[in-house]
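Known limitations

Structure tokens in this collection are predictions and should be treated as such. Users comparing against experimental data should check residue numbering before alignment. To illustrate the layout, the record for GDSL-like lipase/acylhydrolase family protein is reproduced below. The input appears on top and the generated tokens appear beneath it.
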Amino acid sequence: MQISWEVRNRFRLFREERDFLLHVENARNRSILAAEQSLELQSEGRGWARNMVNRLCIDLQGRVNQPCTRDNVKENYITPIDHPVTVRLVGAVPVGATCAWSFDDGDGPQASTFDCAEPVNLRVRYGKQTVATVDVSAGADPTQRVQTEIQVRDVFVAGLGDSIASGEGNPDRPLALSDEGFCFRSYLGTAGAQYYRPSRHGYKGGRACEAPDTLANWQHYSALWFNAPCHRSLYSYQARTALALAVRYTHIAVTYLPLACTGASIGDGLLGSQRARECPPGKTGVCNTSVNAQVAELREALTAAKKRQPDRTLDLVLLSVGANDVYFSGLVADVIVETATERALFRRSGVMASVDDSRDALARELPQNFVKLREALKPLVGGDLSHVVYVSYANPALADGGVPCRGGRAGFDIHPSFNADPQRLARVSTFVDTEFLPQLKGLATCTRGALCRDPEADRMTFVDAHQAAFADHGFCAHSGNDPEFDRSCFAENGQSFNPDIVSSASQPMLCGRGASEYRAYLPRARWIRDANDSYFAAMTYPQGLPAASQPTDIHDATWGVLSAVYGGAVHPSAEGHAAMADAALPAASAVLGLDAVPPNVTRGFLPQLLPSAQQ
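Generated tokens:
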């Protein structure tokens, strides 16, 4: 016999244990990817996070609830004073035996007696060891005593970085699409050039280009994010890795602080403030278009925690950053925007970049930025940057074991001017594989001539094991097992949408089916969202843009382009993030030393104190 114990609802972001248990049940003997696929099928493609997102210890504005009521108990989120634990006697327990339990954390024992088949629930104090003792009596047999020590380790994990870190492309509650069309103007040709794409479900305003409406009215029907200003999502690899630690290790609790933000670079986002992506749905109508620097937010949280608990440390930082420092979204725009008018407009507004621009930034700016980032992070992790797990990017444009995607309009025909140019695509793919990813690895690990003052202390823990898996799952990957809607309605020839300006107002899809049948969270061969996915799942009208690029009319041509790409085109899907989390989890466990903890159990017979009653 031995005493078994585990922390209940140990992913502390979740207010309700049922949400945690759903993940525990789906994780049994499965990878994070297999668990995600199982949950996707259970939710019929609507996604497991769609209701959980309203039951968290961090609200939709990004504020930590203090206190946070978790399973009817008020807790301090960043500095818990105790943890809920379930204790059981397991092994060869005699049938009908009685268990006299005692729990002592140094302030005198708490005693209770139960049938040995009953689990015992209690709260144990943070930072203190509780000795659990049980005396097992069964009929005339001698009483046996079993003892163990309970001490919960609360692991503080922060998530930092850009849109790959935040989970862009995967709204916690995806947009509900209408089967009817919504008009966008086109830059092409005459002032009268227009086209229709699916509208938002519930939107009752003007759908024709001649019927303007307010952005506030339209945004009332937007997708829901765990954090709208940063497009932060529970599907992100950072949330999934932190959650997986809690699922796998029963003697810890995980306090997770997500700070990653779409659009972040090292200078604008991590070390300085940045523009918000979208406003949270609120009644006030006030929109703060700026987001505080992530490192400053983390420093503030850690300082406040240490005031209450001087020994509180930041145990792990999950980090992905660098793509925006080399204008990656500009490279994507350069690949997919085909028509001369749009290309000229984009170039003028600085939304487009060439491989030469990126190469220049990679050589000149990124190494210096990394030096600054290291200096800022070092004091937060006790001077040891191995506690920063840097998760690298995957090449988004590969399929069939690493063959570059061919390009074309397939997956990008949500906008008439989009067409992934094969030559530009091949050039970007080669740049990512042969220059960008190797240079990032060098910067994170203090190799390839990276500027590191003390390579031993400055070296981050580096993760890139997921890159090989993505070589089969880029944006152009297809399979006969893809969702039926995708196979019927997203045409491989890039002609998915009805070009007839009259009939497309009521039926924008050429396949004749309703866009509302699309499901963002079903297993697919592609783990990278294409522009069609981005529009169908998130349809983002980015409100944090500079005033000059902020159109007043919701039918404006600019919105047509932005809504197609700003919801996560060329970003990993929930499956892609789960695969990234599978790669990050062993590294995180190793940094935390979680696989090296032996259990503490003693057992023995008690001398018979009283003769048992004869049966």
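For this record: Residues 599-615 have pLDDT under 50 and may be disordered. The radius of gyration is 27 Å. Please report discrepancies through the issue tracker.
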